[in-house]
Design brief:
Number of domains: 1
CATH architecture: 2-Layer Sandwich
CATH class: Alpha Beta
Largest sheet: 4 strands, mixed
Helix content: 40-55%
C-alpha cells in the first residue's frame, strides 16, 4: 500500500457494518470509493460482484466524499438485498462522520 493511502487510511473514521468496515475520509468534491476484498472473500467473480453492488449503492445514495470499504471474508456470499440492507444500516453514521451529502431514497 502506498504511503499516501496508508496515512489517509490511518486517519480515517471507521464505521463498522455487518460484514464490512467503511473508512470515511473528509473531503469535498466528487465521490471517490475504494474497495478491499481479500481472496478469502471468494473467487474473483464473487469479489467483483460485491464491489459492483456496493459501488452502485454508493452512487445512488452518496453524493460526495472519500470512502474505503473493507469486506469481511463471508460478506461476498450474501444476496444483493442483504448487502444493500447492511449498507443502509450505516448510512446515517457515514453522514455524521464524513460530512457527505447522502440522499434519502
Amino acid at each position: 500500500m502506498k504511503n499516501s493511502v496508508r496515512n489517509r487510511f490511518l486517519s480515517a473514521k471507521k464505521i463498522s457494518g455487518d460484514g464490512f468496515i467503511v473508512y470515511c475520509l473528509s473531503r469535498n468534491g466528487k465521490l471517490k470509493i475504494g474497495f478491499f476484498a481479500s481472496r478469502s472473500s471468494g473467487n474473483a467473480v464473487r469479489r467483483n460482484r460485491v464491489k459492483r453492488i456496493c459501488r452502485q449503492w454508493f452512487k445512488k445514495f452518496v453524493k460526495n466524499g472519500d470512502f474505503i470499504v473493507r469486506f469481511n471474508p463471508n460478506f461476498a456470499l450474501r444476496s444483493t438485498d442483504e448487502i444493500e440492507h447492511a449498507l443502509s444500516l450505516v448510512r446515517e453514521s457515514m453522514v455524521n462522520n464524513a460530512g457527505s451529502s447522502i440522499s434519502g431514497n
